[in-house]
Amino acid sequence: MKTGNTLLGRTGNANSSMQHRPRNMSSNTLLHRTRSMNSNTLLLVITIVLFFVMYAAGCLIYADKGFAHVQTFLNLFITNAGLICVPCGMTCVMLTGGIDISVGSLVAMDCMILAYGMGVKGHSCLSQLILVLVVGIVFGFVQGFLVGYLQIQPFIVTMAGLFFARGMTAVICTDQISITQFSNPAYYAMANAKIFLPRFLGYTNSKGKLQIPFIRPTVLIALAVVIVIFFVLKYTRFGRNLYAVGGSQVSAAMMGLDVKSTKLKAYVLSSFLCSIGGICYSLNTTPGSVQQAKGFEMDAIASAVIGGTLLTGGVGNVIGSLFGVLTTGTITTLVTTNGKLLSSWANIATAALLCFFIILQSIFAYVKNRNK
Amino acid sequence: MSSLKRLVKKKLFLPIFCMILVLLINLLKSPTFFSIAINNGVLYGRLIDILNRGSEIAILAVGQTLVVAVSAGTDISVGSVMSLSGCFCCMLLAGYGVNSATTLAMPMIVGMLGGVLMGALCGAFNGALVAKLKIQPMVATLILFTAARAIGLLLCDNQITYIRYEPYKYLGNFLPGVPIPTPIFITIAVILVVSILLKKTALGMYIQAVGINGRAARISGINSDVICFVCYVICGVCAGIAGVVASSRIYSADSNNIGLNFELDAILAVALGGNSLAGGKFNLPGSIIGAYTIQAITTTLLAMGVSTDQAPVVKAIIVVIIVIVQAPTFKAWLETRSARRLAAETAGAGEEASE
């Protein structure tokens, strides 16, 4: 009897310890997902609320420095246009349980191709834009093939991609190139185009001149990307496949989904969006240089994580990633508006926020497992 | 043929093969590659340079191997932690806000230990997140990856702190009267301590057990959380040591440049050493050879006149080739091919025999 009890006790322990495993390949994936939806929506809501609270706090504290102006809010989108596109692709890859750390280098390579093609070689604007998009697709295809079909760890593959793209940037040109008005007027006009918002949103500055808030075309591109990817993830077969593959690869394969090609497509999409992001980035900061967009990949991952995407895959949303980017952007704006703080405080604040969200996710996962 | 196959199957085959390949290419390129000369009482030569410059990567690779083995994830914060440790060490020695110090604020050894301790602290932070809160290693270490360098910059009051004190340079350069660079000794010491720890205690076995199947390890009575935590602390200590060495090399704390991209090199060394990044069994000698191979590649490229910015292209191609060769899918494909050929041959032989 006694031995029987201890045996039972042990089995019980084993069971409970099994339940605490985060990557629990449970057979009831569907149930798992419907339950996890709630806590993940909560995470998304927390991110959005945090963003607005942070922004409102900024408006109150730095009201005299023009933080409350509409233009400051729009600048958040303008400066982060490139960074908004990239986490959308990153989210798709992370949904499959992978990761793409090559994005920063790819953005740098795209910028360099654009700058070299137009600034030095004098090619037309359209041909270079198409070239960049094609490069993105090919780059993503190679990475996706290695990850999906040869089943190599995504981290290693995309790390090689990171090295390759950064190195190629230097191979194309080691100097800093800028695209001037003379070398490519069309591109220059596109980079400096302003789309004005209605007049009543403007304010009168100290010189008595009316300032009308404006956005740049890149903002429209970035927002279009977010909306398209949102609908792709929500309503298309491909989007649902991404969630299924990330939720449980084995179940997805058993359901008859083509796991390999889904992964391949995710990486192609990521690199393609990354190229669009690269174009936006290049439009914002016309020069191309080797050291450009360093650490972009970590910004993108941090934004996605703050937005509620899990690195284990299967859970995430591009809206969350958008707010992740805006939140980190707000931190940077707050630090620069202050003027006295060192720029490294922005990094530390972002890391603290990241830490907060990661622990929050972990607590939610723990509670969920306990309730089961 | 069979002996060749057995050789290829050996664990250390890939790292050693790569190393020999790189050295051979070097030898063909410049016959003076292996020459070692003594100038001003210290050793000079490409080989010494590789051993010297590869020290930090080798030290990091030791810690990284354990982390990869135990948690099937990578610690991407090591480069940043290196920078933080170096800065903390220099800040302790020079005092806060001092740009250039000729006299030390405290004994040198205390400052250096402080730097290493800072690394251990960072490792403990990572370890707590991974082991206790069950956060994926890459995400957990992403926090310090972002923050550590920035904290280092704050510690040094946003400037480069110089320690113009002769003995401080010993650690990263040469001890007076010793012709061999000091970092080599430090690397050997780190490797020795860790391998004794792994061999003489059950730690090595526990790490493998936790890495292969954490659940099974827990059921059989291993406290897998503690094992995981210890591995991250060891990795942090390694990063701390590497950081102090790197800062001693340039006798200053350059927060923005110490350990830049070293995390990638360290992970690459682990992969090159024949370790699976999916955790479980590990191979410490392989990682160390992998680390020196990477340094050899870097040194070779620089010697060939490839710029520092362009060198990553070659590194990337090498990584891709290695991972493709190592990929189980690729191996399976090769095996089915050779099996098919074998079947065809035996069938052919059978037909001949019957005729």
Q: How does this structure look, described?
A:
The complex is a heterodimer of chains A (372) and B (355). In chain A, 72% of the residues lie in helices and 2% in strands. With 372 residues, chain A is an all-alpha fold. Chain A has a single domain, classed as ABC transporter involved in vitamin B12 uptake, BtuC (Orthogonal Bundle). In chain A, α5 (103-120) packs across α12. Chain B has one domain. The two termini of chain B are 28 Å apart. In chain B, a hairpin with a 2-residue loop joins β1 (37-39) and β2 (42-44). Chains A and B meet through α1, α7, α13 and α15 of A and α7, α11, α13, α15 and α16 of B.
What are the defining features of this structure?
heterodimer; A: 372 residues; mainly alpha; ABC transporter involved in vitamin B12 uptake, BtuC; 72% helix; 2% strand; globular; disordered N terminus; B: 355 residues; 3-stranded mixed beta sheet; two-stranded antiparallel sheet; 16 helices; 71% helix
